[in-house]
Amino acid sequence: MVQLIVGEKGKGKTKILLDKANAEVRNANGSVVYLDKSTKHMYELNNKIRLIDVMEYGIENSDEFVGFIRGIVSQDHDLEQMYLDGFLKISRLENSPENISKVMASLEKIAECYNVSFIISLSKDEKDLPEDVRHMIVTSL
């Protein structure tokens, strides 16, 4: 399952994502991973959540990002949830938003195949998203 928390920058998406991750980790039977563009939120996350600073890995485009996600999933067989903050930046879609649908389709396939939930904060207004990803929106700010 892929869930999107959308809204313009500064609307409070990260707070919602952090609160959701901290609440869900209490009930999780497997691993929970939080991907971000820095370690800024390290002390706001429950210590059972693995924080990964994606910017440390030199990802240059959205295809490499999807490969990075596949690598995390393949390494952690009891992975339940992945939280992705600052999605456009960490996935390298800032300059190629036309690829959002392609990346979301890849994440949906990974989610189905490996039973992983992706909860994503995306700095775009709902009306500016492609029609084929709008069904994934759970919160629009």
> What Rg do the Cα atoms give?
14 Å
Strand content: 15-25%
Work out the helicity level: 25-40%
Oligomer state of the chains in this structure: single chain
User: What is the helix tally?
Assistant: 4
General shape:
globular
Number of strands: 6
Briefly say what this structure is.
The chain is of the alpha/beta class. 33% of the residues lie in helices and 23% in strands.
Could you describe the 3D structure shown?
With 141 residues, the protein is an alpha/beta fold. It contains four helices and six strands; from the N terminus they run βαββαβααββ. Helix 2 (62-75) packs parallel to helix 4 (100-114). The model has no long low-confidence stretch (mean pLDDT 90).
Keywords:
141 residues; alpha/beta; single chain; 4 helices; globular; six-stranded parallel sheet
